[in-house]
Design brief:
This protein is mainly alpha-helical. It folds into two domains: 77 residues, Orthogonal Bundle (Arc Repressor Mutant, subunit A), CATH 1.10.10; 133 residues, Tetracycline Repressor, domain 2 (Orthogonal Bundle), CATH 1.10.357.10. Helix content is 74%, strand content 0%.
Length: 222
């Protein structure tokens, strides 16, 4: 989870110049720092989704987060770092939620079904974050972008392994080429949600939507 200490550790890991570490305070004070970081990242995600990374300004993000413009630089160095942290947080949440929900499941069919459902529910619960991941991360410089792309590859590999495991359970073997095609089609379906999903119309049918996607891909490996 991105908190104040993790934010600075992450920045150091991607090669940015070091910044002075915040002094240790009481536990209550640390929680306040954590809340500030979450507030900044949430405000940034909503503005990047609304206006795009290029048009949203740090001053606007600070105002939405109810933090003074100079104060926001206590938590980050620049807008690009903020985009990186929004994307990293979104992917970490997505991966962690699936890992936690699937930890006790061994049936490959149920794991694939849960993977699809978890992707949808994560996107719906954090639509701004999901939009930023899909549309804005390509604007990162290579140092930041390479880390995000590596996380995306790992997540896609999880989907590929689930399809491969289900095929194996059905007595079939997927070639690497076919599994790559299937996982590309799977993520095409999963990531199209923002193009047509209407909460007023579709929220009550989320389970049915996830089930239909599952059936399409489960049948492809039977």
């Amino acid at each position: 989870m991105a908190n104040d200490k993790a934010l600075r550790k992450t920045t150091k890991a991607v090669g940015s110049a070091g910044a002075a570490r915040p002094t240790k305070g009481k536990r209550r004070g640390q929680r306040r720092h954590d809340a500030n970081v979450e507030n900044i990242l949430g405000s940034a995600a909503s503005l990047f989704a609304e206006k795009s990374f290029g048009l949203a300004s740090i001053r606007e993000i600070a105002a939405r987060a109810n933090i003074s413009f100079p104060r926001i630089y206590y938590y980050l160095r620049n807008k690009e770092e903020l985009l990186y942290l929004v994307a990293e947080r979104g992917l970490e949440r997505l991966i962690k939620s699936y890992e936690e929900r699937s930890a006790q499941i061994t049936d490959p069919a149920e794991k694939l079904r849960l993977f699809i459902e978890n992707h949808f529910t994560s996107a719906i619960s954090s639509p701004a974050e999901a939009k930023v991941l899909l549309q804005e991360t390509s604007k990162l410089s290579q140092t930041y972008l390479s880390r995000i792309r590596e996380m995306e590859r790992q997540y896609a590999e999880t989907g590929r392994a689930l399809l491969t495991d289900l095929a194996r359970a059905n007595g079939k073997q997927l070639s690497r080429a076919r599994s790559r095609i299937l996982v590309s089609l799977l993520f095409g379906a999963l990531n199209s949600l923002g193009n047509w999903y209407d909460p007023a119309r579709d929220e009550a049918h989320l389970q049915e939507i996830a089930e239909e996607i599952y059936r399409l891909f489960a049948s492809a490996v039977q």
